[in-house]
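User: Could you walk me through two proteins back to back? I'd like the raw sequence and the C-alpha cells for each, with a short line separating them so I can tell where one ends and the next begins.

Assistant: Of course. Protein one, sequence then structure:
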Amino acid sequence: MYRDPEAASPGAPTRDVLLVSAIITVSLSVTILLCGLCHWCQRKLGKRYKNSLETVGTPDSGRGRSEKKAIKLPAGGKAVNTTPVPSQTPHDESDRRTEPRSSVSDLVNSLTSEMLMLSPGSEEDEAHEGCSRENLGRIQFSVGYNFQESTLTVKIMKAQELPAKDFSGTSDPFVKIYLLPDKKHKLETKVKRKNLNPHWNETFLFEGFPYEKVVQRVLYLQVLDYDRFSRNDPIGEVSIPLNKVDLTQMQTFWKDLKPCSDGSGSRGELLLSLCYNPSANSIIVNIIKARNLKAMDIGGTSDPYVKVWLMYKDKRVEKKKTVTMKRNLNPIFNESFAFDVPTEKLRETTIVITVMDKDRLSRNDVIGKIYLSWKSGPGEVKHWKDMIARPRQPVAQWHQLKA
C-alpha cells in the first residue's frame, strides 16, 4: 500500500500544527515581557513622581515679636521702683503681609476668608460680650509688711492674657494701686506699649503705715489701657482685704481680673449701618439712631451727637460728626458719611464711633465708643465681616456702647 511520506503518522503532530504552536508561544513570551516592562516603568515613574511630591514644602512665615520700652514712672508719691526694667524693642503690630491681587473681587474674597479664620469670637460670643464671664486676663503681685519700718510693700510683677482694647488689636496696659477706702492717693506703674502679657516688676512702698491701720485697708489694683487721645479704658480690677493676708512675709498671688465696678453701668446702644463699595473704594457709615443712652447732665438727660473717625495704622485720617440732639436719650440721627478706603488698606483700617454729650459750659463728655474693624470685639468683627461679604449693600447692626 502506498503511503504519503508527508502524511502524519497516527498520534503525531503535523508540521503546520508545530509551526502554529511555536508562533503562539513566542507571542505569549513577548506579551509577558512587555507587561513586565510596563509595570516596572510604572513603578519607577510612580516612585519618582511620589518623591517629587514629597519634596514640595511651604515656607515658614513665623516672626519673632517683642515689646517697646516703657514710659518712666511719674515723680511723686511714696513709691520706689527697686527693679530696673530691661530695654525692649518695639512690638510691630503692623508687620502683616499683604499680597497683590489680580482683581478687586479676588481681594474681597480673600479678606472675607481671612476674617472668618482670624477674627476673635463668634456669633455666640457676641450675645455674651461685656458680661462677667468674659476673660479679662490675670495679674501677679506680691505684698508684705515691714514691722520695723512700718512700711507696706507692694510689688506688681506681670499680667497675662489681657484683652485687646485698642482698635489696633492690642492694649497699652498699666496698673493703678490704691489702699481703699482712700481713693485720693494712688500709685501707678509704667505703661507697657502694645502688650497683652506685660512684665512690670515694679515695687512700691507705702511708708509710715501702722500695722493696725494697714489691716483695715483693702489693696485695690486696677489695670487700664492707656489712651493718648481720650480717657483710659478700664481692663479689669482685683481687690484683696489686707486683714486676710499673712503680712509677716512677702506673699505672691495670681488673681483673675474682674470687670471694673466704675464701668458697670449701661451706656446705651447705637444702631448703624456699613456699606462697602470695592469698585468705588469707599465705606459709607450711616448713623441711624441710639437708645437708652446714659444721662450725663444734672437734669437726668444728655445732648448727644456722634463723632466718626477713620483710622489707618493707628493714625487719624478723617473725622465726621452728626448734629446735636438736645435733651434726648433715644435720638434719631439718620446721617450718612462716606470715607475713601482703598481695598488694599482694609486690613489696617478702623472706624471709631464715639457718642458724645454736648456741654456748653464745660468739656464735652464721652458717653460711649465703638471700634469697627476685623480685629475688634466679637460683635464689631461680625459687622465688619458682614460688610465685606455683602459689598454694595448696607448692613445694619446694634452695638453696645463701651467706656
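----
Protein two, same layout:
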Amino acid sequence: MNWLEKDQHYIMSTYQRLPIVVEKGEGNYLYDSEQNKYLDLFTGLAVNIVGHSHPYLLGKLKEQADQFLHISNMFINKPAVRLAERLIELSIPGKVFFANSGAEATEAAVKLVHKWGSSQETPKKGIAVLEKSFHGRTLGVIQLTRQPGIYQDFPAADYPVYEVEAENLEALEEVLKTNQPAAFLFEPILGSGGIQPVSPSFMEKAKALCEKYNVLFIVDEIQTGIGRTGTFFAYERADITPDVILFAKGIGGGLPLGGMIAGEHVQEVFHPGDHGTTFGPSPLSAAMGNAVLDVLYEQNELENGRERAEYLWSRLEDWKNESEGFVQEIRGLGMMIGVVLNADASFVKTLQERLLAKGFMFNITQQRIIRLLPPLTLERAEVDAFVETLAEEMNALKERSVQ
C-alpha cells in the first residue's frame, strides 16, 4: 500500500485529506514525498504563525529538550511560568490555565463558568454564543459550535446554550435578561463560520450588556489570536476588557498548546483538584510559546506581518475589482481572510485542486469560501505569485464552465 492507502486503512476518517504526503516544512513552504513545493496559505489551520521550521523556534526547542521533556504539574515549570507572565502582560491582569488545544481551553472555560455561576447570589447557568460559531468538537463544548452537521448526532453536556445572531444587540440583551446565562462566548472573527468579523461596536456594547446583567464576557481567540489579525489578540480593536480569553493554535509554534486567561475577579474560581491535565503545558510547548513571542516582538514579525497583510489585501482587492463581480466579497482582518465567490461548492473545490497542482495550498470553509490563514512571514513575491495564479485558474475554470 502507498501512504494514502495506509492512511485510509489505519486512521479513522475524521478529516477529508488533500492527497499530499508531506515530507518537510521549511519557511512558508511544505514539500511532499515527490519533492513538489507548496506555498502554505493555511498554516496547519492557523498554527504555524511564523512558518515552518523557523530556526529560532527550533533552537529554543532543542535548548529545552536538552533540559527535560516533561515534568509533573506538582513541580514548577519555568517555561510555563514565564509564558503565563508574558501572556498576562500582553492582555489582562489575571491568571493562566494551560491546556493542549483550543477545545481543551474551551472545556476549562465551561467548567469555570459553571462554578462561577453556581456561586452567585442568584445561581446562573448556561452560555450565550453567536450563530455559526465554532468552539470545538469535544462532548463538553460541541453544543457551543452552532453549525449543522457538527453537534446534532451527539449527546450534549447538561447546560443550556443560547444562540444569538451576530451584531444583534437586542437579541443578546433579551437572552441575557430573560435567561440569565452565566457567560457570553464569541469569536472576534467567526472562523469556520465563514470569516465573519464582529464589529468593535458590537463587542463594546455586548461587554456593557454583560456588565449590566452580571454575565462573564469570554473571547475565543483560538484562531484569531497570537498576532494573526494584526494585533496580539483580535479583541484589541475594541475598547473592552474581557473576563476570560481563550487561546491556542499559533502560540505553540507548531506544538500542541492552548489555554485560558482568567481575569482578576475569576482567577481564583478554580481550586486544586477542580481541573487539570497531565501534559498541560508541555515544557517543550511552553518553550516554543516563549520563542513565538520573541519572534513576534523582539524580531518585529508582528509589525512586519501587518505590512505584509496590507499588501496581500491590496492585491486581493485589485483582483476582486477586475473579476467583474465574480469575487463577491473579501472579508476578515490581517492574515485571516475569507474570499467569497459567486460560485457553487463544486467550483470552489475544483479551484482548490487546480491551485494545489500549481503549488498553492488554501482551505475552504462553509463549502464555498476560500479561507486564507497565511504566515506572518509571507513575502510580497509569494503574494504576487499566488494572486496571479488564482486569477488565471479562476478565469480558466469560468471559461470551461461556460463552454
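The domain at 73-268+277-298 is CATH 3.40.640.10 (Aspartate Aminotransferase; domain 2).

Let me know if you want the two compared in more detail.
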